[in-house]
Design a protein that fits this description.
This is HIT-type domain-containing protein. The chain is of the alpha+beta class. The chain has one helix and four strands; from the N terminus they run ββββα. It has one domain. The strands form two sheets. Strands 1-2 form a two-stranded antiparallel ribbon.
Length: 47
């Protein structure tokens, strides 16, 4: 799936992933490869 636009977290970098949990389009810096979700959702998992 093609992702276009800016990252919904930092609003500066181009988005390259879409989180299957929340639907955010995020850049590489805000993607958790281990969890395969965005870092915002990944942080919520550990709390």
């Amino acid at each position: 799936m093609s992702v276009t636009g800016l990252c919904h977290v930092c609003e500066a970098a181009p988005a390259s992933h879409t989180c299957p949990r929340c639907g955010r389009a995020v850049c590489e810096d805000h993607w958790d490869d281990d969890a395969d979700i965005c870092t915002a959702c990944a942080q919520g998992q550990t709390q």
